Structure prediction request, 97 residues.
Amino acid sequence: MKYLLLGDDYKKLFIEDDKQFKSFRYDINKEQWVPGGTELFDNRVGFDVSEPEDSPYRYGSLSCMKEIVEVTKEEAELFIGKPINEEEIIKLFNNKS
Prediction:
């Protein structure tokens, strides 16, 4: 499991499994982990949703690639301002729904 900060100016905290199959984002407003969707993947490949489906510029757009930085659990806890219960995180990853 990895803790990742995504963003250039405004950052979001994600947790991701080691195979990059599943991720969760910490929702500051709800103070809970929510599904991460494809946001990390989209940033890694520079996915530009505004380009037409057949456009060669749909992937690889540098303007759609924000910084992704791996941080420690302690740094992640400082970022959200509270302790992270890793047992809860493991349950999220093991949930099949």
About this structure: The CA atoms of residues 51 and 57 lie 7 Å apart. The longest strand covers residues 2-6. The mean pLDDT is 92. The beta strands are 2-6, 12-16, 23-27, 32-35, 68-71.
